[in-house]
Design goal:
Glycosyltransferase, mainly alpha, about 400 residues, about 0% strand, 2 strands
């Protein structure tokens, strides 16, 4: 028993020590990311946007730039046209619908994240922030990944309490889905679940909560499937959002599944192209940069305590099971000892009762007493046994 308990605590200590190891991108990967950023700079439209005048594409590229520390107001697009962050921000500002973009919470929230991360603090940005807050309060059903990006935007705006309220809405929807889904079904799809888990982690939601564990396991299952079947261009964005969510949850942990998917993400020329892009596409390249950035983030020490707590809970269950086995064995032994004492007491009582009866009847002959005792003992013993079994509920009287 001592050996088993020592083994459990040794396993737990080794598990906690593994938290000290954080995933680091190789120098080769760092160089590839620099090439990707340059490719995005070279593929900005001279009017300031990316894609086909796409708000989503432009917002994602700006968000990627803000994460990787790009702050150039201007640069030359392929050495010919003037581009830069200033042009992109002015383009977004010029096409907004007063206080949002295309009345779309996802696009608007990603734009806000980029603007706040780039240090833009102007009145028109604050109006957009109010629209996001009010949009999240509406009773109509809003897609969870839209709410997830709203949580991130509100956090970047410094509105932690508002972000927490939105995260509670997300949590209640996950709980509802957990009750309703059939065995083997995914939660919401990797694209949605990845963004949701990332937002809940950022909002400070407990990593040991059931909904967090459910999202984590769902993303692990999806990425395990991807590892077996491979990544296609059609599933790339799903994979990147699943990667983002799981990497965010693990908080920089050096994880074997994350490492294998990371290798697939950078696999060239299938996905990562020689020019520095993913699939020669600005949106997919921005998604890749944002997702990979989560590998570079090491969670703050106060958040690591959640993972330690989770590990302790897992091993606490093993100890409880072990103690349960010990208690069952102990109870079994005590019961046998008690039963032994009971039978001895019954036998002794039967003999004593027989002798008392013989004396009471005035039988002085020792031989006669023994004869009467031998006749009475089985009867008394049988009666006592039936009384005991009746008391335990084994037979009916």
């Amino acid at each position: 028993m001592r050996e088993k308990i020592c083994e459990i605590f040794t396993d737990m200590i080794n598990e906690i020590r593994r938290l000290e190891k954080f995933k680091k991108l190789s120098l080769e990967h760092e160089e590839l990311l620099k090439n990707s950023i340059q490719w995005l700079k070279d593929h900005q439209h001279p009017d300031g946007y990316w894609g086909y005048e796409s708000v989503a594409d432009t917002a994602l590229v700006l968000l990627a730039f803000s994460i990787y520390g790009v702050r150039d107001e201007e640069w030359l697009i392929k050495g010919r046209h003037v581009g830069g962050l200033k042009k992109a921000i002015n383009w977004l500002k010029s096409i907004r619908n007063v206080d949002n973009w295309e009345n779309n919470l996802w696009d608007t929230s990603v734009c806000l994240q980029a603007l706040y991360k780039l240090g833009i603090r102007e009145e028109w940005v604050f109006k957009v922030t109010e629209w996001v807050k009010n949009r999240c309060k509406q009773r109509e059903r809003i897609p969870l990944h839209h709410l997830a990006q709203a949580v991130n935007a509100l956090l970047d705006a410094g509105l932690d309490e508002d972000a927490k309220k939105v995260s509670e809405i997300i949590a209640s929807e996950i709980e509802k889905r957990l009750r309703e889904r059939k065995e083997g079904e995914h939660l919401f799809g990797a694209y949605v679940t990845g963004q949701v888990l990332d937002a809940l982690v950022r909002s400070g939601y407990s990593l040991t909560a059931e909904i967090m564990r459910a999202c984590e396991m769902d993303l692990r299952r999806f990425l395990e499937e991807v590892r077996r079947t491979g990544i296609s261009e059609a599933t790339f964005q799903d994979v990147m959002m699943a990667f983002l969510g799981l990497a965010s949850f693990l908080g920089g942990e050096d994880n074997e599944l994350i490492n294998s998917i990371l290798a697939e993400i950078f696999k060239s020329p299938e996905r990562y192209k020689r020019d520095g892009s993913w699939y020669h596409d600005a949106k997919k390249t921005a998604f890749a940069l944002i997702g990979v950035s989560k590998v570079k983030e090491v969670r703050k020490i106060d958040e690591i305590s959640y993972r330690v707590y989770r590990i302790i809970i897992d091993y606490q269950k093993r100890i409880e099971d072990l103690l349960g086995e010990l208690e069952s064995a102990y109870k079994g032994r005590i019961l046998k000892v008690r039963q032994g004492y009971l039978w001895l007491s019954l036998a002794f009582g039967s003999i004593l009762a027989s002798l008392i009866i013989a004396v009471t009847l005035g039988i002085e002959s020792i031989i006669s007493q023994l004869i009467i005792g031998s006749l009475l003992i089985p009867g008394l013993f049988s009666t006592a046994t039936k009384a005991y079994l009746s008391f335990k509920g084994k037979i009916k009287v």
